[in-house]
Structures are given as C-alpha cells and as structure tokens.
Specification:
Number of strands: 12
Shape: globular
Helix content: 40-55%
Distance between the termini: 27 Å
Oligomer: single chain
Radius of gyration: 28 Å
Amino acid sequence: MVEMKRKVAIFLCMIMTLGLLSGCGKQETIQTNSGENQSPAEEESDVKEENEVQAENVINEESEEKNVEEKEIAMEEITAADVVSKMKIGWNLGNTLDSHNANYSIDMSTEAFETAWGNPVTTKELIDAVVAKGFNVIRIPVTWDGHLIEEENWKIKEDWLDRVQEVVDYAYDNGVYVILNTHHESWYEPYYENEERAKEIMIAVWSQIADRFQDYDEHLIFEGMNEPRKIGAAVEWTGGDQEGWDVVNSLNETFVKTIRESDGNNPYRILLVTGYAANGWEGIRHLKVPEDNKVAVSVHAYEPYEFALNLQGRGNWNHDTANIDMIMNSLDTLFLSKGIPVVMGEFGALTKKAEGNEQDRAEFAEYYVNAAAKKGIPCLWWDNGAFYGSGELFGLIDRKTYEWKYPSIVDGMMKGIAEAE
C-alpha cells in the first residue's frame, strides 16, 4: 500500500509540473480534436480532469494487482488461528442432515432422511435468516452412515452428496464460515478391533467429500468426527479410557492425512479435530493435535450441566459460572497457550417451559459467549429445531416461518461478543 501511494504521488507531481508549463506564454485559441475552439482555461480544466482519471486508473490497477496476489496466496498462507479469529458466533443446523436410524433404508429419498426427525427441508431462506441475524459460522452436521455403499468401497450415494453440497452452498454463498463434519457415525467407534475398518471408511468417505469440495476456499472447514465414543459403554460420557483415546487420536491423524493428500485447496484447508466424545473435561486432555498450523480443536461443553443439559435439572441459572470459567481456563492451558486455536462446536441450554426460563438462558448465553470470546474461542449454539415435547428443546428459530422464538437469547449472544471486543 505504501509503495502504491508513492507511485501515485510521483505521477501526480509530474502531471502538476506539466500543467504549470502548459500555462506559460501568451493566451491563444486552441483547436480541439472535435474541431471546436476552446480557451486555455477550458483546456486546462479538461487536462486536469483527464489527469485525475489517469491517476485513479493507476490506483485501481495497483489495487487489482494486489487483490490478485492476495487471492493467489490466501489458502497457502492462512492459518487456523487466522480463520478462528474471524469466527465470531455460530449456529448448528441440528437434527436435519444428521438424522439416522438402523431401520432407515439406503433407498430412502434425501428428503425422507432430512425430515425424519421432525424438521422441514432446509431452505436457503432459513440460512439467510440465520446469517442476517449476525451469525457468521454455520455448522452443518451430516451423518453419512446409511448413505454408504459398502460393496463399492464405501461410495457415498450421489443424491445425498448433491443435497449436502446444496445446503453447504446456502451458507457458503453468504460469505460465512461453514463447518462440515461426519456426525452420528457408528463406524468410527474407538475400539482397537475396529480401528483398521474405521480408518478404511474414514479414508473412503473423506476422500469423496474432499474431492467434491476441493475448489472451496478457507470459508469451508472440515471436521473429522463429531463425538467419537464407545456408544452404550460405561465410559461413553465419562471421558473414555486408554483404548478410546488411542483410537480417536489415530483416526484424527488419518483424517488430516487424507485431506492433505487430496486435490485442489485441500492441502491448505482448515481442519477440526476432536478428543474422545468431544468431552470438555477428561476426554480433551488426551487429545494429540497433529502438527499442522491449519488444524484447530473442536470441543463441546453444555455447562453448567444441571441447568444447560440435564432434563431433570434446574431451570434457573443462578449465575452459576464456575464450570464455564474452568472449561475456558482449561482450554487456554491445554491449547490456546500453545498456539492451537479452539472452536466450541456445540453449546446451549435447554428450554424448561414450566419455569419460563428464557431470561435465565439469555443471561447464560451472554456470559458463556463472552467468557469464551475473551479467550478467542468462537461458540456455536446447538439448534435442533425442537420447541415442544419432553426431549431436548434447543430450538431458537422456527424453520418454517423463520421467526426467532427466543430473540433475547440471540441478543444475549451478540451482546457477549460485543462486550469482548
């Protein structure tokens, strides 16, 4: 930019000198190219205007060259820390493309899968509404299990991959950051006896995803696994065990290697790895982050548990900040202090209508997001589209009308970000 300004300054000085020289001597009538007579004063005005246009063209040409250079090196030079620093607040398209059931048929339509858990087909208007509200990160959870053809080397059904790309584009075309993952997958359960099979499928699935999205820039982020854990085991949600930690770390390495060996922009793509069950307490302590400055850590933390996630827990937050603070400080010690960025891929607090706790949830959201933002950790609310019933009610926006049901919670998150800046 300094060099560009210097060139323009020199150019303008030359023009001014020529202008002064042309103003010397007796006045006379000048014959213009159009054949019309023009006074010296009028000619000087025209020359000045032409010189200004030329100067502006020089600036524009310099700017265009600079932009081309930046575009050419962007994916190579940008780091995970660079991208994460631009991720402010995010939203999950939960319970949609991640729906799954052992009884589902691979021959089901993409719409049947997408709407199986009660949410409507995702529209561009929905994603536009989320972005317009201020969210600049959209996480798109996708379950690929149920769409894989084993006898064809775990080929992803074309119509499913097409639909996933369509939804990704809804967000990507808005210029926000998009996180695409493998979500409720049974094939990557972390047992030693399953490790080789899991690696085989990991390579097959992510190779296809990487190929489909190879030309997307740094706004598209790949997340290798969601909450890899021993489903149904005693250690499922308690932080795991040595076997679980070992296999999860091994699969993270396989994921990163697969993407780095892919074509297009994938050698430079920002990737997210996670520890056992994405657990923010014990599981995360055993995560081995690959040595790659384009890799960040993904973690989930619904804290304080009694308020945020326990269906039988309390509806009042009571400004219970202890666990939130401990999580953020722990992530700082484990990763941030070592130059490894962190993304809070899921957080939130259940609606507990009997107690009418929207205000509590709004205050919780503001504090949580603010505490994380002060550490440089962007947070993504888990929105599963659920507002009624006895299950986990994390919905914020009505996916049919695009109405924000709990605007104060969204306002709380936005305020938490603003206060941290």
